[in-house]
UniProtKB/TrEMBL annotation:
Organism: Carnegiea gigantea
Lineage top rank: taxon: Eukaryota
Gene3D superfamilies recorded: P-loop containing nucleotide triphosphate hydrolases
Family: Belongs to the small GTPase superfamily. Arf family.
Any GO molecular function: GTPase activity
Stated name of the protein: ADP-ribosylation factor 1
Region (Disordered): 1-44
Pfam families xrefs: Arf
Binding annotation for GTP: 55, 111-114
Listed InterPro entries: P-loop_NTPase (IPR027417), Small_GTPase_ARF (IPR024156), Small_GTPase_ARF/SAR (IPR006689)
Keyword tRNA-binding appears in the UniProt entry: no
Ranges annotated as spanning the membrane: none
Keywords: ER-Golgi transport, Golgi apparatus, GTP-binding, Lipoprotein, Myristate, Nucleotide-binding, Protein transport, Transport
Cellular localization per UniProt: Golgi apparatus
């Protein structure tokens, strides 16, 4: 009975657009705060979970909260922001060195292909030095998240 009440409470908290409204604020640990700030979204599709973490500098230290049991990494790069591709490369290769991620396959989305000046997949591959990836499956796909292009092709890989 208590479980049904919890489900009803969740439904009542749900807003029409699918976002949950805040009802109570509890004290959180630093790790929980980092998870909250990472703008995580957990979606269930069969037995798969997807954790979405932002790339802001303040959030990156909390990425490791999601490393245990990770089977795949989806790394999204802004292909139009050539000034920050060096940072994206350094962060990407640092992630690949993490012991908990050694067995994870890697999918790279070269995003924002709809913007002028966006680098194609070959140029992003070179900028991120993907040729240095050894002993790991990886693929790169050109995407435009706003137009929904390339996303399903990448996820089907």
């Amino acid at each position: 009975m208590a479980e049904q009440e919890k489900e009803e409470e969740k439904k009542q908290e749900q807003q029409p657009n699918g976002n949950r409204k805040a009802t109570k604020r509890a004290e959180t640990t630093e790790e929980e705060e980092g998870k909250k700030n990472s703008q995580q979204r957990r979606k269930r599709n069969g037995d798969s979970y997807l954790e979405i973490c932002g790339g802001q500098t303040s959030i990156r230290p909390y990425w490791r909260c999601y490393f245990p049991n990770t089977q795949a990494i989806i790394y999204v790069v802004d292909s139009s922001d050539t000034d920050r591709l060096g940072i994206a490369k350094d962060e990407f290769h640092a992630i690949l060195q993490e012991e908990e991620l050694k067995g994870a396959v890697v999918l790279i989305f070269a995003n924002k292909q709809d913007l002028p000046g966006a680098l194609d997949a070959a140029a992003v591959t070179e900028s991120l030095e993907l040729h240095k990836i050894k002993n790991r499956q990886w693929a790169i796909f050109k995407t435009s998240a706003t137009k929904g292009e390339g996303l399903y092709e990448g996820l089907d890989w």
